[in-house]
Amino acid sequence: MAVAETTGAEVETRNIGEYLMSHLREYGLLFALIVIMVFFQVVTDGTLLRPVNITNLLLQNSYIIIMALGMLIVIVSGNIDLSVGSVMGFIGALAAVMIVEMGVSTYLTMLVCLAVGGVIGAAQGYWVAYWKIPSFIVTLAGMLVFRGLSLWLLEGQSVGPFPKEFQLIANGYVPDIFPAWIGEALAPIFDARKVNVLALVTGFVAAGFVVWSGLRKRARDRAYGIVGEPRSFFVARNVIVGAALIFIMYKLSTFRGLPNVLITMGVLTVIYAFITEKTTIGRRVYALGGNAKAAKLSGIRTERLTFLSFVNMGVLAAAAGMVFAARLNTAQPKAGFALELDVIAAVFIGGASMSGGVGKIVGAVVGAFLMGVLNNGMSIMGIGIDYQQMIKGLVLLAAVIFDVYNKGKQG
Amino acid sequence: MTGCAMTALLEMRSITKTFPGVKALDEVNLTVREGEIHALVGENGAGKSTLMKVLSGVYPAGSYEGEIHYDGALAEFRDISDSERRGIIIIHQELALVPLLSIAENLFLGNEQATRGVIDWQATFRRTEELLRKVGLKEAPATLVDNLGVGKQQLVEIAKALSKEVRLLILDEPTAALSESDSQALLNLILELKAQGVTSIIISHKLNEVRRVADTVTVIRDGTTISTLDARVEKITEDRIVRDMVGRDIAHRYPERERRAGDVLFEVGGWNVWHPTHAERQVIRDVNFHVRAGEVVGIAGLMGSGRTELAMSLFGRSYGRNISGQVAIRGVPADLSSVDRAIAAGLAYVTEDRKSLGLVLEETIQRNITLANLAEVSAGGVLNENEETKVSERYRRAMNIRTPSVFQRVMNLSGGNQQKVVLSKWLFTGPEILILDEPTRGIDVGAKFEIYGIINELSAEGKGVVMISSEMPELLGMCDRIYIMNEGAFVGELTAEEASQERIMSLIVTE
User: CA A87, CA A313: separation in Å to the nearest integer?
Assistant: First the structure.
């Protein structure tokens, strides 16, 4: 009896060890984010997680996250897009010229901007997909062209300010749909002036959703006899993620509530996570990046897929461009300068592979947040931009080395 | 002339080389005398290349059993550069030239005519001209290798060997990709080198060429030496060589099948294909063939005869350009102009190279099986993963894929199991006609037998199977009819009753 128990426990331990080894990357990323947040929370005397700073953190990184969604798909399919920073700047400039100088309505401008983003993506994707010109070169050219175009469009000047409704894209907050008295009643409990109930509820709903989908996947795994995550890991991970979501939303609720950008970001993240993981087109993208020749011989129209990944990237860069311009309330010739590197770094920190076929939307978003927290935390501490750049560079290198090392050990 | 000296330059004694699970060489003996041309013949997979890799140090001393005596002393080569220093130079079938460098740069690559790292171009060009004269190649030393035809590239390779002061030159299928006149020129050069005292080993399938130049012929089959024939003692006939190459009992290695061919299912007429980059090279010449329902049809031929190119050009025009010809399925013209159309028309093509063309190695078994038919496991573009798992579990059981679960990555599977995953992927598309390109290459005997069983089941279901294979016994054991292909054209057709290895081989070698 005792012997049998020991063996059982041993098997369990080995399984946990094996599971941890094969999922080291995911846990490592989450763990790194937590460590970094705790570190900055301590050294900045709690400034990092102040409601106003959390709001800032989200706004500052929104456009990077939006572009990281598209970049992940481009990188998974085996390409890269260096032009997104320039395209983002160009679209901001286009929006400013249309609204401020030409007096076009805000909503029409937004539609035109998204469409132009798509056309830009198509123009670059065409050469990559159908002429097999390396994406590095095509988009390097695009980076220069659109940088020049924004300068030309703005004639070297800043153009602004934007009308109120355009600013709302980045600086607006979702109004509380719950009656005011609930918030007022909760305020004294949280020791705040007022509480945005919608934000609080959203936090609980999001946490609930994470746990629910986790449980569903677990049930499925069990039904098919897959060795899933050990129970202790599952519980710990869900408690941490759920609590973090509720905590952040609670903080936001005591400030100005849910920023519009957070909703845009959240919805886009969910949509793209769904597309990449649950749809045929997503599956084909991974196959294309994993082995383009095999994908083609399996009847996948690889050229069209590559083309579409760039069109999608263009549209997302346009959306990011509008968010960026609205946030600064002016379009500047230098907007988006070198931002493509932050976006690409976020995707690689998030676990994507340079050679394609590997990477997850959630990873890219967490990667972007990790970079964002580093930026924000170091700025609060008053660390100079010189050290910030060096540290970010080393973090990127460390993340990729970790990946390669890990892969070598598994293989 | 030293050509007739009877001393042995090379003696390989009782060489045994094992790979995990396979004995590639079993007590092979090879004696090459100073100044002779020695031909090494045998079927694909007989062990010729492995033997040459042992000799040249690709498999270093200690990784094999037996002894190599070279130039009168025991030799233990650690790597290729070690054997090259002793004058053993191997020229592979796939040429190892850098296309975008000049002839001169290629000749002295890694052996540059330089002082302290600075290349002496004058010396380089002077020596290049000397070497090119020796091999009879009239090209300027600055010509890019890319601009040379295969025949001339072959000569550059030989010039490169000469630049290293070669004593034993090994040529692996030197004329496989050459035209008739280029082949003749190359053979003449080898004879001339012999006159200058260079000893050569030629690996070749073309027995007429072997007979023409070789002083001695060693036949290898299944990793053992079968015979060594000396042209100076007896006259060597092609029949004799072929008999030694193939003579084995092939009964009971293939599962029994009731042969019952139905109506014509798949018909190809006047199929012509040109090379994708060398526009003037015609790769497939006027090929006509048909497959009946329930029939297994073989395509025999040597590597490079155009079998894979034929299959890929048919399957969604995945190879070549200026493709012309007609394809009909059940008598109705079929549109195979893209891979998805070919799949929709009922075609499936199991690639020769499963790792680089057949599988996404990083992905799971399940994701590989459903890849070519995602529509079946999705609704409105959204995947139904439960359905996917059910489907792949079904194939796992039906094909006997040995794996703990279908969520295992295919990179962790053995070759035989990987091949079963590829087959599952294509069976899931519900094909009528399957083209199997080297379906049993690199997999063990047990898995081979299982795959033969699967092929028989498919034919019993009335599907048409085209089987491309370099292993002739496999074609003879499995096929109802065999087409023989050589240099892009079909040169013969034999029924199962008529076919024998000798007949196929003689059709190939005599054209």
Answer: 10
